[in-house]
Design a protein that fits this description.
Elements (H helix, E strand, L loop, with lengths): L7 E8 L12 E6 L12 E6 L8 E6 L4 E8 L6 H8 L3 H7 L1 E4 L2 E4 L1 E7 L19 E6 L3 E2 L4 E4 L2 E11 L6 E9 L5 E8 L3
Antiparallel strand pairs: 1-14, 2-3, 2-9, 3-8, 4-5, 4-9, 5-8, 6-7, 10-11, 11-12, 12-13, 13-14
Length: 202
């Protein structure tokens, strides 16, 4: 499995393009790290989720298979919020990756993401992605609540609201790695929600 050997960060922000008081969907980002498994010797990589706030242990999220356009269940949280020292010493995350997992990029102003360890359960536990892991969602990407559904191509339903998903990607300004961005635009109008995930090669 091709896994991005990258420093990681995710951001969740509102981009106002409509109703001022629209409620954003509870979405975030997730990444697979090519490090030794923290919870099972059967796993070849360790996933983590990055969220805008705390969630209870056992909370489930769906990940997007971009090639099939399916919201696959599930990543389940197995920890409280993880601090940098815990990521490094208990999970074996390299220092630079631990720092970047907890750093959210919000209009060039860094704020702290809430990072959680997760395990693959239900369908995702034995799920096989198709195609390139760097573009099909296997290496990480958009994280959705457990009740989310993928509907028409490039559309998802979260909390009863239908969103069109726009995915873009590019290179970091220093040339050392890249980023991908998911913008969720409500069909009915209102504010869009954007999740930006970046990765580097150092």
């Amino acid at each position: 499995m091709a896994v991005r050997t990258a420093f990681l960060a995710a951001c969740l922000l509102l981009a106002g393009n409509g109703a001022a008081h629209a409620v954003e969907p509870a979405v975030g980002g997730w990444r697979n790290l090519p490090i030794g498994p923290a919870y099972s010797v059967s796993e070849k990589s360790t996933p983590f989720v990055m969220l805008p706030g705390d969630v209870a242990k056992g909370t489930r999220f769906r990940v997007m298979d971009l090639s099939r356009w399916q919201a696959v269940c599930c990543l389940q949280t197995t920890s409280p919020r993880l601090q940098r020292d815990t990521l490094i010493h208990s999970y074996g995350v390299p220092v630079v990756w631990a720092a970047d997992l907890g750093s959210w990029l919000n209009n060039d102003k860094e704020t702290e993401a809430h990072v959680f360890a997760v395990r693959r359960v239900d369908r995702l536990a034995g799920y096989a992605f198709e195609g390139d892991a760097d573009s099909n969602g296997e290496s990480g990407g958009l994280l959705l609540p457990d009740d989310a559904k993928a509907v028409a191509p490039d559309k998802v339903v979260v909390g009863g609201t239908t969103y069109r998903v726009k995915r873009t990607e590019g290179s970091l300004t220093d040339g050392d790695g890249g980023w991908e961005s998911f913008q969720l635009v409500p069909d009915a109008g209102g504010a869009a929600t954007t999740v930006d995930i970046r990765y580097g090669t150092n």
